[in-house]
TrEMBL record:
<keyword id="KW-1133">Transmembrane helix</keyword>
<feature type="transmembrane region" description="Helical">
    <location>
        <begin position="213"/>
        <end position="234"/>
    </location>
</feature>
<dbReference type="InterPro" id="IPR026512">
    <property type="entry name" value="RGS7BP/RGS9BP"/>
</dbReference>
<comment type="similarity">
    <text>Belongs to the RGS7BP/RGS9BP family.</text>
</comment>
<keyword id="KW-0812">Transmembrane</keyword>
<keyword id="KW-0472">Membrane</keyword>
<dbReference type="GO" id="GO:0009968">
    <property type="term" value="P:negative regulation of signal transduction"/>
</dbReference>
<protein>
    <submittedName>
        <fullName>Regulator of G-protein signaling 9-binding protein</fullName>
    </submittedName>
</protein>
<keyword id="KW-0734">Signal transduction inhibitor</keyword>
């Protein structure tokens, strides 16, 4: 039960972190706005809440001496994935801080990045936050105030990562992966490709068989004609 809860929390954290990265890349672009800055704030706060929940559960389990060896190995694997996800979140938060300083919303004369992307990002944030509609009443200087909060939250995430290393020591190089990198994606693709491949192979085989038969008939006909001509030439001579 605990294992499934940890996996569910980790899966949710991965999705929210990926969503946050997607939105960070639009800062300074043509779709940048006060709504985007507020969505970024809500999304990263959601990610931090999930990170705290993951840390608490995994820390409790990994400190439990009654956990079996197999279960402990699985929780250590989840711990490594969680740590990596948290590092990615911190990197994206720092990137958001840098881009926020470079492209403040209260300076309209500053040219923004022309990314070629347009439109709102509420749909992406809504999927991460598990809500249908996200409406914000953003203040005029939301980006200025938020940058200060973001800087404090980056420090909090850094402190969390440090505390995690102190409480639970799970070196990443000691944890073995259960499957090759990208195996899940490959299995999904190969499953669809294999059926198509089998059909194409069968079609190729049938086509090759017909081609061989036709080639054999033509070769036999040519050989018979050559023999007949040879016999005729001998008789005439």
């Amino acid at each position: 039960m605990m294992k499934e809860e940890c996996k569910a929390l980790l899966d949710a954290l991965n999705k929210v972190t990926a969503c946050y990265r997607h939105m960070v890349l639009t800062i300074g672009g043509t779709s940048d706005s006060q709504n985007l800055r507020e969505e970024l704030k809500k999304t990263r706060q959601k990610a931090q809440e999930l990170a705290v929940a993951n840390r608490n559960k995994l820390t409790t389990v990994l400190k439990d001496k009654t956990v079996s060896k197999e279960d402990k190995a699985e929780f250590e694997r989840l711990w490594v994935i969680f740590s990596t996800c948290l590092e990615i979140l911190e990197i994206d938060m720092r990137r958001a801080l840098e881009l926020g300083h470079e492209f403040p919303l209260n300076v309209p004369k500053k040219h923004l990045i022309q990314t070629g992307m347009s439109g709102g990002t509420s749909g992406v944030a809504a999927r991460a936050m598990s809500v249908q509609n996200m409406k914000y009443e953003a203040e005029h200087n939301i980006d200025v105030v938020d940058l200060k909060d973001l800087e404090n939250e980056i420090n909090q995430v850094g402190e969390m990562m440090y505390e995690m290393e102190m409480k639970v020591n799970v070196p990443q190089w000691t944890v073995e992966a259960k499957q090759d990198p990208g195996a899940e994606l490959k299995s999904t693709v190969s499953a669809g490709a294999s059926s198509i491949g089998m059909i194409s192979v069968e079609e190729n085989k049938s086509f090759c068989d017909i081609s061989k038969v036709l080639a054999g008939i033509i070769f036999s006909a040519v050989l018979i004609i050559a023999i007949v001509l040879a016999v005729c030439v001998v008789k005439l001579s």
